[in-house]
Amino acid sequence: MQPPETVPSEDETQGKGFVSDYLLYLLAAASEAASAQFHAHVRTHGLRVPEWRVLAWLHDRDGAMITRLARISLIEQSRLTRIIIQMEERGLVIRKGDTRDRRRVRVHLTDKGRQIAEQLVTDARAHETALLAQLEGGDGARLKPALAALLARLDPDGQTRGEPDA
Amino acid sequence: MQPPETVPSEDETQGKGFVSDYLLYLLAAASEAASAQFHAHVRTHGLRVPEWRVLAWLHDRDGAMITRLARISLIEQSRLTRIIIQMEERGLVIRKGDTRDRRRVRVHLTDKGRQIAEQLVTDARAHETALLAQLEGGDGARLKPALAALLARLDPDGQTRGEPDA
DNA sequence: CCAAATTATATGAATTTTCATACTTATTGC
DNA sequence: GCAATAAGTATGAAAATTCATATAATTTGG
């Protein structure tokens, strides 16, 4: 058995309860908390979070099709269709039918869209650096690999990640 | 300069891009992926995710007020008000005005609500155990502490956590 | 080559969610 | 003790989101 010191003092006030040490909650809460500031910044550019995600992915790889963009951007497909239409109306992206497979619609950044995407990606990089720097000890360094490992395990085909052609 | 082997082979296909290694994305995607299965299970009980979160918190500490429940359950206040009303209509919770501070509304589990909450918490524990077991190496063990550290840093007052009285 | 199944996107309609703000009760500073 | 401010909850109305399904284009199997 392990010595008791490894346990966070079983009743630091009364035992803490289930949720506050529950992995799925920690993930959701950490995601929210970590993103709050930057998402507020995104909104100052007149974008909602899903729109920023779309721009960021297109920045990495332009001309993605709707379904794929939906998967990796964590947005339901019919919602993304409408979001893309709005973004097109605002001149951020354009849609082009895929000539090989005419069911597909490919989404491309406009110059305006690319400009915003590049600015925000730059800002995001800076924000991430600052955030990781705040985590003393190994925690900051360990976090990304641990998350990546979790994702890889849960989504072996990279449906949710940047896989070239999943 | 570092030897190149420490770098993830700069063009494993073309360089991967920004998003797929961006902390805020990894957090959001990992949260989604990790929760997908269990959230589906929650829905089979006729509950939406926010409702499950409310039940889980009340399971830990009954009689929370709306504002606080909203913060820790990651739900916007006016939305939670309506969700609580719906849950009350379905007999999962009851609202009681706080007699000390008559602005406050305290939410309590009904027997029915508590029964569902307990069942789901049990299921959640089992699911979490299974999930962590899948992560070989130290990743599983390191993940929760790293997330907790991130949260603690971003939310020192425990507004988002189970603090007895934040 | 054709019918059946599958994939990609779009859309109607109901429901949810958001945002701003109203209302009520408490707290603070004078 | 009172006016001003803050805190807690609720609510109308606009907007977003979901769900099921339609439509169109491809792929598969025989």
UniProtKB/TrEMBL annotation, chains A, B:
This is Winged helix-turn-helix transcriptional regulator. Keywords: DNA-binding, Transcription, Transcription regulation. The keyword Transferase does not apply. The keyword Kinase does not apply. It comes from Aquicoccus porphyridii. Residues 20-156 form the HTH marR-type domain. Gene3D superfamilies: Winged helix-like DNA-binding domain superfamily/Winged helix DNA-binding domain. One of its GO terms (molecular function) is DNA-binding transcription factor activity.
